[in-house]
């Protein structure tokens, strides 16, 4: 088998201009051959046997990786967020938008899978942006730096958001007048910190069973929706495609006519993006998965069926059971993150079933707890990966004997305390603006994965690496990633178009939501430019001092040895 030089220090694109140094921490996988028969770190062993302290452990089994990949795609965005999309756009609109975004997600996951099986490195997909971004013409590690921190920021926001959602779900049984929501936020926060600190084996097993419950819940809801649409509910009313005819398949959004229907479809693209966020979790587990070149492709191939079954089937059947102008749906979209806010509960209520909402509320509580648990995991591993590449303080790369980056975990958990902002009514609005940043951070992550994949293919071709050396190849190739990249950028730029529509609160321009909706883009670009500027200044200073030191040695001038061995010990 041919072996190719991709060690980041020499080779066709890994020369010294890349910015690596001999002191830079490089994951073990970076030095391995990467073909189908390449060696793999043994299951349960260190991801880097050459350096025990900063190494993760490969403790995720094949079943855990597959189930975590499935569970990561199922969250409150699907079971609750689809209600607002259905109300604003109609059943056909959400079917189109979820199918379209689902196809983009599959392209993103296939691109990530191709890179992850070639180079199963710690740090999620950030190392690929750092490594291959320079093919664009000078972007180099700055791209990895920018996406790494935006991705970390994303999960620093979503984790407390999920904790808050869990406290709101508890209010279904325990109103805030009896127990302050901050108590439940504290309980759930401590719980996820403990579960993450116990190590990857415990985390993987816990997430396996939580994800199993999520899958069974969604499958149960799909079967229930089929039964209700066929007239199997207590009211024995078969709805079929009734609501697609009256009130209609498409709602009108902002304006009337065909343009209003098109805007309705496009407005639900953002809802669909938010629902699909988290599917890239499989890329973060690569550094701790047993035999990633076998298990990751298996999980990626299942992505297509997950999207079709869990998302497209769910929104299609939901449109058969609930009309977009139903008063119950309108009331549900104004509720909190409890079962009362779910459009599936609206369908159950319409059918006359009285006992399921409480059960579904318990399932939603598991959804949000699992999401908070995995979000904190992603945050800690992302900052750990940045530290490995010298893009965060080095101590954050340190792990304990279980392979847990405890400093990164502690820092991420500390920031998650902003969840307590929701205890105060006046602070909820501020926290709501933070949450508005999540979708743009997620889109920027997908954009970076696609850019990295395009650059990866160009690098592979430049080095003459044949396709037969790939363990997994994206079925869409460079053109598929390019088209998906275009639409991701388009959605990112137009996702908050409604801020330009007149409202009673903000007039003709909703500047607050405009800022929070698009702030991620300039922040991303500033971090790219800032990293390049800082590295350029540091590198220039270092070269100047090295040249001066070499000149002093050549002239026979060296440091004052008398001072160094006397006062130098004191000062």
From TrEMBL:
This is Amino acid permease/ SLC12A domain-containing protein. It is a multi-pass membrane protein. Its main location: membrane. The keyword Transmembrane helix applies. It comes from Friedmanniomyces simplex. InterPro entries: AA-permease/SLC12A_dom, Amino_acid_permease_CS, APC_YAT. Gene3D superfamilies: Amino acid/polyamine transporter I. It holds the Pfam family AA_permease. Residues 65-535 form the Amino acid permease/ SLC12A domain. The keyword Aminoacyl-tRNA synthetase does not apply. PROSITE patterns: AMINO_ACID_PERMEASE_1 (PS00218). It is found in: Membrane. PANTHER family: AMINO ACID PERMEASE, DICARBOXYLIC AMINO ACID PERMEASE. Residues 1-56 are annotated as: Disordered. One of its GO terms (molecular function) is amino acid transmembrane transporter activity. The chain crosses the membrane at residues 65-86, 92-112, 132-152, 183-203, 215-233, 263-283, 304-324, 344-372, 404-424, 430-456, 476-494, 514-534. Keywords: Amino-acid transport, Membrane, Transmembrane, Transmembrane helix, Transport.
